[in-house]
Amino acid sequence: MSYQQRLFEQSKLTCLGIVTAYTLYTRPLYETWYHVVTFSNESNAALFAALYQFQQAAEHDPKANIVFTLSGNTTVVGFLYADHVARPGPFSGFTNITTSATLIPPTNGTIKELCIAIGSLDSPISAKYIPP
C-alpha cells in the first residue's frame, strides 16, 4: 500500500483532513487613531469593567483594537482605531478612569508614526537592541 493510500485510510478513521490551500484576506491600514496611557493598579477593577464594555462594542466595530498589559504596579493600555476620528466610541468606557500618565497623546496618524512614537518612549529595553 502506498503512502497516500495509508494516509487516506488513516484519515477516514480519525476524521482528519489535509489542508492543501487557503485564502487570506487583508485590510489596508493607512489612517489610524492611537493613544497609549498608563493606569495605577488601584484602577484595575474599573479597567476590567471598561475592557468588558470594549469587548462588547468591538464585536460590532472591526476597526477597534486594544493592547492591555498588566505589569508590576502599572497597567498600560494602548488604543488603536483603523480610521481618522476624534475619539472612537468603543473606548468610551475608559474615559472616566483617571490615568497615571499619557505615553502617547490621542493622535490621528499612520502606523509608521505610531511605531516611531513607541520607539521614542523611555524603556529599560533598548529600542536599538538587535538579537543575534
The helix/strand order is: HEHEEEH
Report the strand count.
4
Secondary-structure arrangement, i.e. CATH architecture of the domain at 32-119: 2-Layer Sandwich
Please outline the major beta sheet. Answer: 4 strands, antiparallel
Give unreliable regions as ranges: 125-132
What amount of the residues lies in strands?
A: 25-35%
Q: What is the C-level CATH assignment of the domain at 32-119?
A: Alpha Beta
Shape: elongated
Radius of gyration: 22 Å
Tell me the structural class. Answer: alpha+beta
- Distance between the first and last residues' Cα: 47 Å
Instruction: Give me the CATH fold name of the domain at 32-119.
Output: Alpha-Beta Plaits
Which strands sit side by side, in order, in the main sheet? 2-3-1-4
State the helicity in percent bands: 25-40%
* SS summary, helix count: 3
Question: Mean pLDDT, as a whole number?
Answer: 84
Give a brief description.
The chain is built from 3 helices and 4 strands. The chain is of the alpha+beta class and 132 residues long.
Written description of the protein model:
The chain is an alpha+beta fold. It has a domain at 32-119: Alpha-Beta Plaits. The protein is 27% helix and 26% strand. It has a 4-stranded antiparallel beta sheet with strand order 2-3-1-4, with helices on one face. The longest helix has 15 residues, at 44-58.
Chain-wise SSE layout:
Blueprint: H1 3-14, E1 32-40, H2 44-58, E2 64-71, E3 74-81, E4 101-109, H3 111-119
Antiparallel strand pairs: 1-3, 1-4, 2-3
